[in-house]
Specification:
149 residues; alpha+beta; Beta-Lactamase; 6-stranded antiparallel β-sheet; 6 helices; 6 strands; globular
């Protein structure tokens, strides 16, 4: 990230998504120093600082599945249940259900990213909630790209 203003803008949009999705936790990952590696840059609703120190690896955890496949990935009692006990973010934040979205930059000067949302209760994310979050992603993408230009 380029500076405090970018962080502030991204935090505002992330807070809006957290609130509208009725989530307990939200985090945004952006590219780290190495190709295909990302780290969690911003988190809200966190119970500890461990997630901020984690790097994403393709196929590891909910964020890593999005990184590998480039598609929305859900975790709850019915879908991808194994991630509840294997995903570092789900474990660190004690999340009972989660969903992660790829953030695909529309132009090369913008950054790609991954958004993860989680709930500590067992309430699943339904299709309407997914569509609502996806409708807010362009705002997040715009904020991610504004400072990169």
């Amino acid at each position: 990230m380029n500076g405090p203003k970018e962080l502030e803008r991204l935090t505002v949009v992330l807070g809006l998504i957290l609130s509208k999705s009725k989530s307990d936790y939200a985090a945004l990952a952006m590219p780290a120093d190495h190709y295909r590696k990302m780290k969690w840059n911003i988190s809200m609703g966190s119970r500890n600082d461990r997630v901020g120190q984690m790097k994403l690896r393709p196929g590891i955890g909910i964020g890593g599945m999005v990184l590998r496949h480039g598609a929305v990935f859900r975790v709850n009692e019915n879908e991808n249940k194994g991630m509840l006990t294997e995903c570092p973010v789900m474990l660190a934040e004690k999340l009972a259900s989660g969903i992660a979205f790829p953030i695909i930059a529309p132009v090369p000067t913008y950054r790609n990213g991954i958004l993860i949302l989680g709930r500590r209760n067992n309430q699943f994310y339904d299709e309407q909630e997914i569509e609502m979050v996806q409708s807010l992603l362009p705002n997040l993408i715009e904020m991610m790209g504004a400072e990169a230009l």
